């Protein structure tokens, strides 16, 4: 019986894989996916401005980011750089062009679930964004405060590599631009105010590194 117990203990030790390198470690990652832009309102003001141009529609666009962060164990803090772009739906909006945003965000994320299986996370971030509207009505950009909400799941592929599926809501308000087209809402040079709100579904890969070395397992007692 003792020999059988010893053999089982040795087999368990041999088959056990290394611990996943997540807690107390650094990570780098990248995400990419599809972007949906909420309908935009362009509010014209200034001398000669006579109307608002509402409900500008967009085709599906793209969104991608790179991030680097630290996993404290249950909580992650990361820096993120992201770029997103979508083209105006010409048939529905009556004019062409595109809108894009380059953002730099600081995110905080809460993890829940086992490290060795499917794990969920939720969080958000704040930062700055440079929104650019390049359309027949407006061709200008503005930099300002932005915030976002994030939720998703991730799963370990190897000891250091995770795959994730992430949803991101992004918001930049108080975007102030200058009209470039006479007749849209007034003469060229009219002030234009708008906001950018987007929804993204992203597939990502994350590499974890720098976790502290674990102590060697205690050998089983002699028979």
What does this protein structure show overall?
This protein has 223 residues and is mainly beta. It has a domain at 20-41 and 53-125 and 145-172 and 198-209: Porin (Beta Barrel), CATH 2.40.160.20. Helix content is 8%, strand content 61%. It contains 2 helices and 10 strands, in the order αβββββαβββββ. It has helices at residues 2-15, 90-93; strands spanning 25-37, 40-45, 52-56, 61-71, 75-87, 97-112, 119-135, 139-156, 161-178, 191-209. A hairpin with a 6-residue loop joins β2 and β3. The radius of gyration is 25 Å and the shape is elongated.
Short description:
The protein is mostly beta strands and 223 residues long.
Written as H for each helix and E for each strand, in order along the chain, the element string is HEEEEEHEEEEE
Overall pLDDT confidence: 85
User: What name is given to the CATH topology of the domain at 20-41 and 53-125 and 145-172 and 198-209?
Assistant: Porin
- DSSP strand content: over 45%
């Amino acid at each position: 019986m003792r020999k059988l117990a010893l053999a089982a203990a040795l087999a368990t030790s041999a088959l056990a894989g290394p611990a996943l390198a997540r807690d107390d470690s650094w990570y780098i990652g990248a995400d990419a996916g599809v972007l949906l832009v909420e309908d935009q309102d362009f509010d014209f003001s200034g001398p000669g401005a006579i109307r608002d141009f509402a409900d500008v529609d967009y085709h599906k666009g793209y969104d991608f980011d790179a991030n680097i962060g630290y996993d404290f164990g249950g909580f992650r803090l990361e820096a993120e750089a992201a770029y997103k772009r979508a083209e105006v739906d010409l048939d529905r909006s009556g004019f062409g062009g595109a809108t894009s945003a380059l953002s730099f965000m600081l995110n905080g994320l809460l993890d829940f679930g086992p490290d060795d299986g499917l794990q969920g996370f939720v969080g958000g971030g704040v930062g700055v964004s440079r929104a650019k509207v390049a359309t027949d009505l407006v061709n200008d950009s503005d930099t300002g405060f932005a915030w976002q909400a994030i939720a998703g799941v991730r799963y370990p592929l190897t000891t250091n590599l995770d795959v994730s599926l992430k949803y991101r809501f992004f918001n930049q308000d108080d975007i102030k631009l200058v009209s470039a087209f006479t007749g849209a809402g007034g003469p060229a040079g009219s002030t234009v105010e708008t906001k950018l709100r987007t929804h993204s579904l992203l597939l990502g890969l994350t590499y974890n590194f720098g976790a502290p070395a674990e102590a060697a397992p205690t050998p089983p007692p002699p028979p």
